[in-house]
Amino acid sequence: MPNKIREIIGKYRIIDAHGHLGYYKLFNIPDSSAEGILKTMDRVGIEKICVSSLAGLEVDYKYGNDMVADAIKSSKGRILGYACINPFEQDDVILELERCFDKFNMTAIKLHPDLSDCPADSKKYIPVYEFAHQRKLVIMNHSWGSAQNLRSIADKYYNIKFIQAHYGSAWDGNQELEILKAIRDLDNVWLDTAGSGCYLGVFEKTVDFLGADKIVFGSDFPFFDPCHQIGNVVLSDISEEDKVKILSINFLKLVNII
C-alpha cells in the first residue's frame, strides 16, 4: 500500500461488519483462513472484522460455526463471529444459536437466503427471528427479497437490529429505491457498504439519502479487496464525522461494544 494512502487510512478506526472465513465452492479465495484474514487486517488497518463461514452459510452450519469459534479464540477478539443456521433443520435452529452465543460468544447472526435456497419470507426463519428478538441481537441478511418483506419482518421483530448487506455502494440512484426507503424509514434497519459495482458519486448519494447513522462499513472480504472498500468511504466527499461513524462507531454501537 502506498505510504500516502496508508497515512490517510491510518487516521481512522476501521471495524469491518462484513467478512467471510474459509473456502468457497465456486472459485479460489486466497488468504481466507483466520491467519490470512489477520494478516490482511494488519496490512490495511482493520481493527476488527465480523465474519461468517462460507461453509456455514451453505454446506455445513455446525462445521462452519466451529471454524468461526476457533477464529474468535485464536484472534484474541479481533475476529468477531456471525452464527449461521440451516433453516431446514428446524429442530436444531435454537440449539445451534444457543451454542453459538452461550458457548462461542458470537456477535450476530448471518442469513443468506440464496445460498440456503430458502426465500427470505419463509416461515422457516421464524425461530431465528424469535431468538434474536428475545436477545436483542443483530441480524445481517444478504437479501430480504423485497422491501415489503423487510418492512414486515422489521416491524414485527422490533428488538432486532437488521443489516441489509451490499447496498451501500451499488445504488445507481434509481434501482432498489424501495429497499432504501424502507431502510431509511425503519428505526431498526441499517445497510452495509460492501459492493462491487460503484457508480461515480453513489456513496455520497446514499449517505445523503439515508444519513450516515444508518450505514455500517463492510468489505465482504475476502471476495473484495478491503482497500477498495475502505477507499469508497475514506476518499468520499462526506464529512469527517460521518466517515468516523460509518467506519467504526455505528457497528460497534449495534453490537454493544461501545
How would you describe the overall organization of this protein?
The chain has 258 residues and is α/β, with parallel strands linked by helices. The chain has one domain (14-254): TIM Barrel, CATH 3.20.20.140. The chain is built from 12 helices and 8 strands. The chain has an 8-stranded parallel beta sheet with strand order 1-2-3-4-5-6-7-8. Helix 8 runs parallel beside helix 9 (177-185). It is globular, with a radius of gyration of 17 Å. The model has no long low-confidence stretch (mean pLDDT 91).
Number of domains: 1
> What Rg is obtained from the alpha carbons, in whole angstroms?
17 Å
Largest sheet: 8 strands, parallel
The CATH superfamily appears as Metal-dependent hydrolases
Q: Please, how many helices? A: 12
Structural class: alpha/beta
The CATH topology annotation reads as TIM Barrel
Number of beta strands: 8
Strand order of the largest sheet: 1-2-3-4-5-6-7-8
- CATH architecture verdict: Alpha-Beta Barrel
Short description:
With 258 residues, the chain is α/β, with parallel strands linked by helices. It has helices spanning 3-9, 34-44, 54-58, 61-74, 93-103, 113-116, 126-135, 147-156, 177-185, 202-210, 226-234, 240-254, and strands spanning 15-21, 48-53, 79-83, 108-111, 138-141, 161-164, 189-192, 215-216. Strand 5 (138-141), helix 8 and strand 6 (161-164) form a beta-alpha-beta unit.
